[in-house]
């Protein structure tokens, strides 16, 4: 790392699953990317002193706090990174902006459209840099898909089929962790994994116009318990509680550009550990991507010679592919953690030039509007126009 580079001193709140992913990305970023500003892991905040100190030591944080608000008072912190459950995002991000800090927040941005709107207002008023951690946009194959679409190689887009399929809560004895409690998470599979496929759809196809959705909770009561890191959990003996969020959400959508979308977000797709996939069909070609095979993009082009037409598999690790030059020689693949490193490289560029790279809080608000429209449609059985839920466009 160049010692003369401007440093962005990070204060991160939370230190489990995403805490580990973000800590690793800060450490590796200056190793792979030559950005003008570099992150410094200044302080890690958590409620439990022993836990936060252990994580700070293992992951390379210089200091710790047991009250996240202390990070906002510290003058040696420039960027607040929020990796806590969803019900804390708004309070923490708004307070960080009011303290004049840049903010990066995990997805989904908020619990509701109203919270998301207040978060956008806070960062706009503060004039600080903001970003939302939809890391899958930053897989090289997804960035390459975006490039192909922007170059017009697929022509007019007709369809997107997006799926985020997991199976980690199928066991009825899996406990009622925060991700299954509405007051902490907002919604279930929809906001947790559905938010990611919505972000990919907005990134690759465009803005949603209207949606029609269904949501279902298959297991309505579970033992109480807590997340213990990653997607693992510990059950408490005895007590049980009600699941008040969706286990699965499916929805159809019409986009402003006339494309049609079909989406599925579920934690009940047995055998699918983390199946985040899409297929996009346009007038001149199609593309397919699957996170579990994340370096590859399947591409079909109508212009190919008859007889040779079909999906080809492009391993997006060449130096001409997005982020390819930062890593290894062609075919020497990268992984899940690199999506975060790539995203943080954009955040560092944003902080260097005072801009908020997409996806930022404004993207988070647009995403939240679609999530809210799917929920409303699921309750009413009606198609819902996304703009009807936006307090600004409704007038
Ligand atoms: N980008 C992605 O792909 C991705 C993946 C997983 C989770 N997430 C998001 O990241 C966020 C965190 O999820 P996770 O899986 O890391 O959760 P987790 O349960 O593994 O970790 C949450 C952390 O927040 C801390 N915390 C909870 N309440 C707190 C409080 N009041 N003050 C300070 N710290 C507190 C916990 O102690 C823990 O360290 C969520 O918003 C989730 O939706 C994003």
UniProtKB/TrEMBL annotation:
Pfam families: GFO_IDH_MocA (PF01408), GFO_IDH_MocA_C3 (PF22725). Keywords: Oxidoreductase. GO terms for molecular function: nucleotide binding; oxidoreductase activity. InterPro entries: Gfo/Idh/MocA-like_OxRdtase_N (IPR000683), Gfo/Idh/MocA_oxidrdct_glycsds (IPR050463), GFO_IDH_MocA-like_dom (IPR055170), NAD(P)-bd_dom_sf (IPR036291). Transmembrane segments: none annotated. Residues 143-288 form the GFO/IDH/MocA-like oxidoreductase domain. Residues 8-131 form the Gfo/Idh/MocA-like oxidoreductase N-terminal domain. This is Predicted dehydrogenase.
């Amino acid at each position: 790392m160049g010692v003369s580079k401007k440093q962005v001193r990070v204060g991160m709140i939370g230190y489990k699953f995403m805490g580990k992913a973000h800590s690793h990305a800060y450490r590796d970023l200056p190793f792979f990317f030559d950005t003008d500003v570099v992150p410094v892991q200044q302080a890690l905040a958590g409620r439990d002193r022993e836990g936060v100190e252990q994580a700070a030591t293992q992951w390379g944080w210089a200091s710790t706090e047991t009250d996240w608000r202390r990070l906002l008072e510290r003058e040696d912190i420039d960027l607040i990174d929020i990796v806590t459950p969803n019900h804390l995002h708004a309070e923490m991000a708004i307070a960080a902006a009011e303290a004049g800090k840049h903010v990066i927040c995990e997805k989904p941005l908020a619990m509701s459209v109203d919270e998301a709107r207040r978060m956008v207002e806070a960062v706009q008023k503060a004039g600080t840099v903001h970003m939302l951690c939809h890391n899958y946009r930053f897989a090289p194959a997804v960035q390459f898909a975006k490039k192909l679409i922007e170059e017009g190689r697929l022509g007019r887009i007709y369809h997107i089929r997006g799926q985020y399929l997991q199976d980690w809560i199928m066991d009825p004895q899996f406990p009622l962790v925060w991700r299954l409690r509405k007051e902490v998470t907002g919604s279930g599979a929809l906001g947790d994994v559905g938010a990611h496929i919505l972000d990919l759809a907005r990134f690759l196809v465009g803005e949603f116009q209207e949606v029609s959705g269904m949501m279902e909770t298959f297991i309505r009561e579970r033992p109480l318990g807590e997340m213990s890191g990653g997607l693992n959990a510990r059950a408490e003996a005895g007590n049980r509680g009600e699941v008040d969020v969706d286990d699965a959400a499916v929805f159809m959508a019409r986009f402003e550009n006339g494309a049609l979308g079909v989406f599925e977000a579920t934690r009940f797709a047995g055998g699918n550990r983390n199946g985040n996939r899409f297929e996009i069909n346009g007038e001149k070609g199609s593309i397919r991507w699957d996170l579990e095979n994340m370096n590859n993009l399947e591409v079909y082009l109508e212009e190919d010679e008859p007889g040779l037409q079909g999906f080809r598999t492009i391993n997006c690790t060449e130096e001409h592919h997005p982020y390819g030059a930062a890593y290894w020689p062609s075919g020497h693949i990268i992984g899940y953690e690199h999506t975060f490193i790539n995203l943080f490289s954009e955040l560092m560029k944003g902080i260097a030039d005072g801009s908020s790279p997409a996806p930022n809080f404004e993207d988070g608000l647009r995403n939240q509007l679609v999530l809210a429209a799917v929920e409303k449609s699921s309750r009413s059985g009606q198609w819902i126009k996304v703009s009807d839920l936006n307090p600004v466009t409704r007038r």
